[in-house]
Amino acid sequence: MAKLWAGRTDGNTDKAADEFNSSIGIDGRMFRQDIKGSIAHAAMLGRTGIIAPDETDRIIDGLAGILDDLESGVLTIDPAAEDIHMFVEQVLTERLGELGKKLHTARSRNDQVALDTRLYLRDIAAQLMQKLTSLISALCDRAEEYKNTIMPGYTHLQRAQPVTFGHHLMAYAMMFLRDVGRIGDAKTRMNVSPIGSCALAGTTYSTDRRFEARSLGFDGICLNSIDGVSDRDFCLELASALAITMMHLSRLSEELVLWSSWEFGFVSLSDAYTTGSSIMPQKKNPDMAELVRGKTGRVYGDLMALLTMLKGLPLAYNKDMQEDKELIFDACDTALSCLGITEGMIRTMSARPERMRAAAGEGFINATDLADYLVGKGLPFRSAYKISGGIVAYCIKNGKTLETLSLDEYKGFSDLFDSGVFAAIDMEACVNRRTSEGGTSVASVEAQIAAVRESINESELTT
Ligand code: ARG
């Protein structure tokens, strides 16, 4: 195909160079944004008198026709084209003749690609926020269901204190809520228009950048044209937010893998989200959770590749930047699919309260409450801690638990013990005494669920 930019050179590039240079396989997906941007540009050129009113109308009709034809499949994107911008302009010129060539007045592919990418990512950011919100809602629903289900809480992966499964699930809801906020922040900052920066220096035409920005739903314009075409912070910010989101998804996946093992047996994943082994008939493998954990590395890689691609670039546009889209699109696609799969796993898994409860009964996770009981009798915490530690050591040595120790045995450690000790170390009581805000008591978890539900209702209104 003859190059639209042939002039200084004859445009007869080597076939391998053409393939190497082409980005249409990646940026073709931005065709809607490219055409929408061009329609706004043509309207601006008409409004400012840079092109005549009837020319404006014909260009806009031509562009709208291309969009319809691409949507309906009458027209397909030519894989041999250099990029989506060249493809649309080429088709417009084929359809309108000389007039099509007027569209590229007072712009450059440098500001055009920056515009298209911002428009595209703005939509994807909204989708990501929606998916996150729906995952959070699933976690709230399940937390409500399991707000009374006692399990051991862990530190260092050692049984630590009793918590509820609902409380544990709500910890993830909090992480994903922050992710919604981070993506929302990135979306707000990306929502300024670079179009009109042109190649890098602005233009001699009397354009109206703010009109064009407004008509595309931007909050403002990039105030420096060199920055307008060089800035890819909006890709980096989104990729950073997604790297953190994936880290959260990966931690949850890791727990799902552990919890669904025979060793833990705390949850059973739905058959819909597990696979069998080709050789071992007894297997039910948590492949989806493992894949989410595995794909986290891809998204970190996308962020790292973006940062590295940009770090040495002199201003303004450099072709290296064409690499940005493959990376940020991969990060977005990966996060979107992982969010959907994770929501499915959460909504369909079932907890095994009896296994959780059994694990909570071993491991002396009420030992802190035993110490607190002695503090209640007037002992300083350090001394109470020491006595309780001695009791745990005694139990381990004699194959007993805090619940099965006799009152006489307790009294052997301190005169302060009376029969009230058994109520003090009762697992339900241990949980429901933790009424501090954010704590594990049923009332406290209910308050967390209510607060998170309120936040997601608000964020749904703003995405
Ligand atoms: N396909 C290019 C990209 O994605 C578009 C911008 C090309 N600009 C240029 N001056 N060659 O970055």
Describe the protein:
The chain is mainly alpha-helical and 463 residues long. The protein folds into 3 domains: 15-105, Fumarase C, Chain B, domain 1; 110-355, Fumarase C, Chain A, domain 2 (Up-down Bundle); 360-462, Ribonucleotide Reductase Protein R1, domain 1, CATH 1.10.40.30. Helix content is 63%, strand content 5%. It is built from 19 helices and 6 strands. It has a two-stranded antiparallel sheet. The longest helix is centred in the N-terminal third of the chain and has 37 residues, at 109-145. The model has no long low-confidence stretch (mean pLDDT 96). Bound molecules: arginine. The site of arginine has 10 residues, from helix 6.
Compact summary:
This protein has 463 residues and is mainly α. The chain is built from 19 helices and six strands.
Write down the CATH topology of the largest domain. Answer: Fumarase C, Chain A, domain 2
Radius of gyration: 30 Å
Q: Give the low-pLDDT segments.
A: none
Helical content, roughly? 55-70%
Order of helices and strands: HHHHHHEEHEHEHHEHHEHHHHHHH
Strand content: under 5%
- Overall structural domain count: 3
